[in-house]
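Hi all, a correction to my earlier message: I attached the wrong file for Dihydropyrimidine dehydrogenase. Here's the right sequence:
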Amino acid sequence: MANDHLLKFVDRAQSYPAKRDAEDRADDFREIANRYSVPAAEDQAGRCSQCGVPYCSVHCPLHNHIPDWLRLTAEGRLREAYELSNSTSTMPEICGRICPQDRLCEGNCVIEFSGHGAVTIGSVEKFITDTAWEEGWVEPLVPGRARGQSVAVIGAGPAGLSAAEYLRGFGYDVHVYDRYDRSGGLLTYGIPGFKLEKYVVTRRVERLAAGGIVFHNDFEIGRDASLDELRQRHDAVLIATGVYKPRAIKAPGVASDGVVDALDYLTASNRKSFGDAVPAFDDGSLDAAGKHVVVIGGGDTAMDCVRTAVRQGAASVKCLYRRDRANMPGSQREVANAEEEGVEFVWLSAPEAFLAGESVTGVKASRMRLGQPDASGRRAPEIDPAGGFDVPADLVIKALGFDPEDLPGLFGAPELGVTRWGTVLVDNKTLMTSLDGVFAAGDIVRGASLVVWAIRDGRDVATTMHVYLKAKVGAGKVAA
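and the right structure:
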């Protein structure tokens, strides 16, 4: 019976795909874990308890049908498992790789609460879709019946790509405008290959292009066209730029040579992996080789930076974070991976000043202690009067997160409404901005967040744009 494959969490131990040895994986940018074999994937999927209220699905922003595709996987029905997984997500193999499952689906797995170890949901999701690509089960993007209307999508990151796929499926002509030379946004240039190998992103983009979505790369709104010009060319516009402005550190010496922003550093590394010419890398400015590296921050971007520095051959890598390990925002799995690879975490520390001669020589750090919880619920850091310490450094990477750029100024659209944080202001129901026919989704609306939320937002905004465009035809503003 099929049910013989299920509910095995008591007598079958949790087992993630084997990670490559830390010394081996620190020498390259390949993904650190191997993929499940078919029997291993079926065994691990069979640990699912098939609970009546699947908290894994509830805590997934996409509300993926996780228990159902785990059951299908356990029963060896992999194609059906893929089709169900794909029905709610435009990028399941990407989510399987980079979602912080320990904070989302797996962290809320019922059998995790019972002490048996969560089902390895992310690894199974990755396995299902990678298998689908290999077996030819991933269907081409088939456009819907042509509607005679076109949509502009500004930004080729996960929110923009997700929305573009759904809008093309509805039958619209879709044009994606992005300022970078390759599509994918942070998936391409922000996330290192050891978490997300780039062919995984490239094949998704190629599938969209084959489905008739037109990509305009190296196209910057405000330089190559204003927002108003795009509104005149298209029947609706989606702003899905993400947030790219690095948060600043106010400390003496922060402008010294050798103190760099995380995104500049990660983009240079990813470009080198593509074989691009990167002068700032080649002259050593954005290359950690042989250097004592200090990364400031405790989020997932900081983890990407420390682990990239290891692979570039840094002499030492330290991460300074103002709270303790239990209160850091980054994935605990990423911290563990970094520690295995030789990164040293200096908890309860914050930069007070950057020491420099011709370039940075070190970080003068304050010791911190935790006070009362702040608005986020985490205990707020405060300076410990016990004193500070100095950390030698040849390269300091600032990884404190990202804020929105000034889009009304960049786009030549002063009438575009923004919040006091600089994010684009939208109607909560329609996701339309202050400008008629201009919508926004992803991090530019919610602030720096997770890729899975961007995919969800892209899905949601495509639906509301579809409603708007149909009504526009009905009102006689566009020929039916």
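Sorry for the mix-up. The chain has three domains: 2-135, 150-243+404-474, 248-400.
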